[in-house]
Specification:
Helices cover about 40% and strands about 20% of the residues. It contains ten helices and eight strands.
Length: about 250
């Protein structure tokens, strides 16, 4: 089982990268689970034709009980991808990171992985700060690989550096390792030069180069990933190539 946590600055395109990568694995015949670990709970919506799944934290508040089966808190989307969202606390109350910890505990109780037996699990994680529950995929053995999504923007690279540092802090404990950087282009001046300089300085590989594409926006407006809607496009091929890279690594 390939277990990947995707991190990056808020708004950098983590959910777009995660859902398209999930769709790419599904197109390659793999059984996939995507877990959105962001209070916005919008990670999986483009795998579900724009029809969101009820977040775990919302379920707990609305029904005042724990879910009894996976289907209470999950939906199957494109390619049979099982979509789950942690959600977050009532706005202004509680800790979003705690929602991730609560969700992961529930999924263990429901024996998600034993029951579903996925080939790939993707975690889409808010990455401006890597502490508490947001660090759980790194330090609790939920993920083996970390993908860092960045552009050439200053604050995106700043967040990428923080995320990489957090992963390195756990390096001696056999936890998740950084698989590489996804350069999600934003048409910044000298963007590739800046991202490559950061990658070289930290000994990281740029494992995917996602162009700024109106095709992504076009398909997201229809509640789909570009990999679902138009797999033949060059931007879709970038996601398919990244999925293949992970599969080759596992051989």
């Amino acid at each position: 089982m390939i277990k990947i946590a995707i991190y990056g600055k808020g708004g950098i395109g983590k959910s777009t990268v995660t859902s398209n990568l999930a769709a790419a694995f599904a197109r390659l015949g793999k059984k996939v689970i995507q877990i959105g670990c962001d209070p916005k709970a919008d990670s999986t919506i483009n795998l579900l034709n724009g029809d969101p799944v009820m977040p775990v934290m919302n379920y707990l508040r609305e029904y005042d009980k724990e879910p009894e089966q996976i289907s209470d808190i999950a939906k199957e989307g494109f390619g049979g991808i099982l979509c789950i969202e942690t959600g977050g606390p009532t706005p202004g109350l509680g800790c979003a990171g705690r929602g991730i910890i609560t969700t992961f505990s529930l999924l263990e109780d429901l024996k998600l992985f034993e029951t579903y037996q996925p080939d790939v699990v993707l975690y889409d994680v808010l990455g401006d700060v890597v502490c508490g529950g947001f660090a759980a995929p790194i330090r609790e053995n939920y993920a083996d690989h970390v993908l860092i999504v960045t552009s050439g923007e200053k604050m995106a690279l700043y967040a990428a550096n923080n995320i990489n540092s957090a992963v390195q802090n756990f390096a001696d404990r056999a936890y998740a390792k950084v698989f590489g950087l996804v350069m999600n282009r934003r048409s910044v001046e000298k963007e590739e030069e800046k991202v490559r300089a950061f990658a070289d300085a930290n000994g990281l590989e740029i494992v995917a180069d996602i162009p700024r594409s109106n095709d992504i926006i076009h398909w997201e407006d229809q509640g789909k990933t570009v990999v679902e809607g138009a797999p033949e496009l060059p931007v879709s091929q970038q996601f398919l190539a990244l999925a293949q890279k992970f599969l080759q690594e596992e051989k």
